[in-house]
Design a protein that fits this description.
The chain starts with a strand and ends in a 9-residue tail after the last strand. The protein folds into three domains: about 170 residues, Nucleic acid-binding proteins (OB fold (Dihydrolipoamide Acetyltransferase, E2P), Beta Barrel), CATH 2.40.50.140; about 130 residues, OB fold (Dihydrolipoamide Acetyltransferase, E2P); about 80 residues. It contains six helices and 22 strands. GO terms for molecular function: single-stranded DNA binding.
C-alpha cells in the first residue's frame, strides 16, 4: 500500500440502511437465506457454519455451502498483546466485521492477513461478501464465547438495500457501549484515524449549571504559578476556554490502558493563560461537551511541571500572560476532578475573564501577513475535496485524514486554500459541502497554505 491513499466517501463504519426491496428476499440480503424442504421458515447460514466448526476437531472449516452475506459494520480497535499475535509487529489494529445472512447478524473477527482489504476500501459497509473459510477463536477471558474468525473471503458489489432488523445470534453483541471481540478495550476507534471520537462512550449531554460561589475558594492562575510547589491542596480555578486541541490517542498493545486518550485545553483568567491536560476516561465523558468560549470551574485537579518538549500553541491573545512552567491535570481519579460548566449569565464582570476576540482577515490581506500568525477567516465554500489519507510514519498503520477546501470571501479573485486535517469533529468534517458559510477559527498560516497565482 502506498504512503498516500485517496479515500472516497465510503460511508460510516456501521450501516444505517433498512429499506425493503421486493426484488430481493424479505431481508434485503441477496441469497443470504438457506431454505430447507419441509421446514418452516429460513435456516441461518451463520448458525449452520458454527455447527460445522463445533463438529470439526481442527476448529477451522470450509463451509459446505457458500452463500452471500451482507456487511453491516467494519469496526477497528487496537488489540493488546496476546500469545496468538506475538509474531506480528505492533501497532496491531484489528477489525470486527458484522455480517447478516438474512436470519441472524454475527460479529466476526477479521484475520489480520485480510486487513489490506479494509485499507484499500474493498471490504466496506454495504457490500455483498462470500466467506470461503472460517475458524473459531475462544476468548479465555469470557467463558463459553467462541469468536467466528473470517479467514478467506471474496468481496462483491455494493448492495442496493440492507436490512438491519435481523437479530444478533449472540445477544452479547448488543451491549452498549459496544465492546471489541478480542482484548480488554472498552471501545472502538474511528475507522480511518485515531483523532475522531467514535461510538457510544463519547457523551454529549454535559450542560451548564448554576453554582453557589459563597463557599468556594478560587485562586488565580498567576498565584497558582507562584505557590503550587508548596501546596498539597489547590483552591478552585475559574477560567475560560480559549483553545481546544484535537484528541490524542496514545494506546499501545503492551499498555493495559482502557481508554488511552489525552487532550489539551488552553484556559485563561484575568492573570494569565495555562495548559490544561485532560486524561483517559475524562475525555469520553467531557470532550464533546467542551467548546471554546465556555467558562469552567475546576476543582480537585493536580498540577505538575510542564512537559518541556511539547509544542505550545501560539497564544490566542498575546496580551494575556503565558504561563509555561506548569500544567493543570484533570483525571477521573488521583484526585477525581470536579468540572462544572458555568452558564454565561452567571459570569460577573468583576471576574474579568478574557473574552474571545476574533481577528478576521480577508483574502486580499492574506498575502501581506507574516508566517505563523493566527487569524480567522469566513467565507463561502466553493470547493471541497474528498477525504484523503496519508501515513503518519512509514510501515505503520496510523493515518492522517484530511481534505482540501477553497473558501471565497469576495475580496479577491483567488480563494483561501486550506488543507483541513481531522479536527476531532467528525460530524462537521465529514459533512462539509460547497455553497455553505464556513468559519475556520484559529487558522494557522504556514507554508502549506498557499495562494493561487
Amino acid at each position: 500500500m502506498s504512503g498516500e491513499l485517496e479515500q472516497p466517501q465510503a460511508g460510516p463504519s456501521r450501516t444505517g440502511l433498512n429499506l425493503p426491496n421486493p426484488e430481493r428476499n424479505e431481508t434485503g440480503v441477496p441469497g443470504g437465506v438457506i431454505r430447507r424442504a419441509g421446514t418452516q421458515g429460513p435456516t441461518s447460514w451463520i448458525q449452520k457454519v458454527l455447527e460445522q466448526i463445533t463438529d470439526s476437531p481442527l476448529q477451522s472449516v470450509t463451509p459446505s455451502e457458500v452463500v452471500p452475506v451482507a456487511v453491516l459494520a467494519v469496526q477497528r480497535y487496537l488489540l493488546e498483546d496476546e500469545p496468538r499475535d506475538r509474531i506480528l509487529k505492533p501497532p496491531f489494529y484489528c477489525y470486527d466485521v458484522t455480517i447478516s445472512d438474512g436470519v441472524y447478524q454475527e460479529k466476526c473477527y477479521l484475520d489480520p492477513s485480510l486487513n489490506f482489504l479494509v485499507y484499500k476500501n474493498i471490504l466496506k459497509v454495504g457490500i455483498e461478501m462470500k466467506i470461503f473459510r472460517v475458524s473459531c477463536i475462544y476468548n479465555e477471558k469470557r467463558l463459553g464465547q467462541g469468536i467466528l474468525c473470517i479467514d478467506n473471503v471474496h468481496c462483491g458489489e455494493t448492495l442496493d438495500t440492507i436490512s438491519v432488523e435481523t437479530p444478533f445470534r449472540n445477544s452479547a453483541h448488543e451491549e452498549i457501549p459496544e465492546r471489541p471481540l478480542r482484548g480488554g478495550k472498552s471501545h472502538y476507534l474511528a475507522l480511518w484515524n485515531n483523532e475522531d471520537p467514535y461510538g457510544d462512550i463519547w457523551l454529549t449531554n454535559k450542560q451548564p449549571e448554576e453554582h453557589n460561589f459563597n463557599n468556594t475558594r478560587i485562586i488565580s492562575l498567576s498565584h497558582l504559578e507562584m505557590t503550587w510547589n508548596n501546596r498539597k491542596n489547590f483552591p478552585a480555578l475559574l477560567v475560560r476556554i480559549l483553545h481546544k486541541s484535537r484528541l490524542r490517542y496514545y494506546g499501545k498493545p503492551d499498555k493495559k490502558m482502557i481508554e488511552p486518550y489525552q487532550t489539551f485545553l488552553e484556559v485563561a483568567d484575568s492573570s494569565g493563560t495555562v495548559s490544561v491536560v485532560m486524561w483517559n476516561a475524562l475525555c469520553p465523558e467531557w470532550y464533546k461537551s467542551l467548546r471554546v468560549g465556555l467558562v469552567l470551574l475546576l476543582q480537585d485537579y493536580s498540577v505538575k511541571r510542564s512537559y518541556p518538549f511539547r509544542l505550545q500553541p501560539l497564544p490566542v491573545d498575546p496580551q494575556i500572560k503565558l504561563i509555561s512552567t506548569m500544567e493543570v491535570c484533570l483525571n477521573l481519579r488521583d484526585p477525581p476532578t470536579n468540572i462544572i460548566i458555568i452558564p454565561e449569565r452567571q459570569v460577573k464582570p468583576e471576574w474579568r475573564l478574557p473574552k474571545l476576540n476574533h481577528r478576521f482577515v480577508t483574502r486580499s490581506e492574506l498575502d501581506n501577513m507574516a508566517e505563523k500568525q493566527i487569524c480567522d477567516v469566513v467565507g463561502i465554500l466553493v470547493f471541497v475535496g474528498r477525504v484523503q489519507r496519508s501515513k503518519k510514519k512509514e510501515n505503520r498503520e496510523d493515518f492522517w485524514s484530511y481534505r482540501w477546501l477553497h473558501i471565497a470571501d469576495g475580496t479577491s479573485q483567488h480563494p483561501f486554500i486550506v488543507q483541513l486535517f481531522s479536527t476531532s469533529q467528525p460530524e462537521i468534517f465529514e459533512n462539509i459541502c460547497p455553497s455553505t458559510k464556513f468559519q475556520y477559527f484559529y487558522f494557522f498560516l504556514f507554508l502549506e497554505v498557499r495562494t493561487l497565482t
